[in-house]
Amino acid sequence: MTIKHPLLAAAGLILAITGCSDQKQPQTVDPQQASTTQIIQPSVALKKNQGKVINIIDVPGYSYLEVENDGRKFWVAGTPIKVNQGEVVSWEHASLMRNFTSKTLNRTFDEILFVPGFKTSQDSNTSSTVADQPRATVVSVESVADYTFIEAVTESGETVWIAVPTSDVKANDKITWSNASLMHNFTSKSLNRTFPEILFTGTVQVTN
Are 76 and 94 in contact (CB under 8 A)? Predict the structure, then answer.
């Protein structure tokens, strides 16, 4: 009969215990914890001519919107629009104005973008963009609030009305403009008048 040395038997027992402890135990997942795990979706970057509305100021004939895009906040003004905070608006063309003072708001904006019109994801807007650059002769001018309404006759003999942020334009001036938005049945509360058609643009150029 073979008698094992006590030290060898003890070493075997230690190895057996160590071998068991090195085995990885299966990990379990708490179903309740897994079901409450939130998946964070990446935010969608806005395009250049877009902004998320964070502040709204409406005045007769104008909507002033403070928007945010990629962490930058700035003001955009254009034809009136019904919009809520948190919505994303877009525009096609813009004219940058510095140190613009709104008499209606009694406020000066260091920088503000004037746009012919806004669009949202919910509507297609009622305006269409006029991209050409016509020429016309000013017939009459009416300035109210933050707008100048210009009646002009184009080279083809057509009478048009143009609305532009307060501008130093007078009768008989030769003017041109671009990237205007055509609005139908626009009512100006300041003038107490409805225009069947009127062009909104960020600026006009005097070509005298």
Answer: yes
